[in-house]
Amino acid sequence: MTADTRTNQVMLVSEPGPLPLDQRPSVEHLVTEDGKPVDNIFSEKQQRLLTEPLYTSWKIDTPFLALANVGLFHSVRVPPYVPDVLLSLNSQAPENLFPKNNRSFFVWEYGKSPDVVIEIVSNREGNEDTDKLFGYAQIGIPFYMIYDPEQWLRSERLRFYELRTGKYELIQGSAHLMPSIGLGITLWNGSFEGHSDLWLRWTDLAGNLMATGAERAEHELKRANAETQRANAETQRADAAMQRADAAMQRADAERQRIEKLTEQLRRLGAEPEDFS
Cα separation of 146 and 121, whole Å? Predict the structure, then answer.
């Protein structure tokens, strides 16, 4: 990718908001999908773990797009990037996804670049820390993350970059937060779809994991079970109280019967019970 081409990219991206319809370039000659599968099962699962929870659990009033393995077109002159995951706030997919100009993330259609891109390293051929590191900065993506679970590129499994003065700065430390977006990201040892591994996951700004749909369902089931147990305990306590009340009534009836019997015996002896009150 030449410097001139990169300059053209930045000029295109810098347009404020979506380009007017009559200024949008034709995309009929562009290849928006090539039919190639993702490179491995782990990457496919990791991509879904970074998209599905946002739609399931992220409480946000702003429309957003979270996409995996979809072309990111920033110019009609050069091939697109295809980030493993992208997140774009204030973006909404068109209702009809089949027209060609709706099939990919065209910057001129959405009027902005994504806010976050994530690359999952599976070999040494993806240029995640060279061409993509430079290119994503050039098109103005605020946050870029490289997840390298097998440490193909460096010893760090997760590298978190923030765009500052036009260049990416590596942010050190374990707390990777994005206050401007309202999200954080972290490495998590756990089981996803039956596979225990080290996964990359979204968090809120307090560090709480963004739950998957399955986790939410499990949590709701546990809460429902706990509510049922509490209700059962309340029912048992109410039953016990009723049993105690019944026992007290039985004792009261027995005492009343005993007094009536004693009263009758006293009368037979010629004594009135009130004489002994």
Answer: 7
Per-residue tokens: 50: 């970074």
Write out pLDDT tens, residues 65-100. Answer: 999 999 999 988 889 999 999 999 999 999 999 998
| DSSP3 helix / strand / coil % (the chain, rounded to 5) | 40, 20, 40
Q: Range of 201's domain?
A: 3-210
Among candidate residues 178, 210, 242, the one where a domain is terminated: 210
Q: What is the pLDDT of residues 12-47, one digit of tens each?
A: 444 457 778 766 666 665 655 666 656 799 999 999
Phi, psi of 243 (to 5 degrees): -65, -40
130 belongs to a structural domain:
yes
> In angstroms, rounded to a whole number, what is the distance separating the alpha carbons of residues 34 and 13?
24
| CA dihedral sign, ordered 56, 61, 63, 68 | negative
Q: Do 165 and 237 sit in the same domain of this protein?
A: no
Whether residue 226 sits in one domain with residue 139: no
| 253 & 153 share domain | no
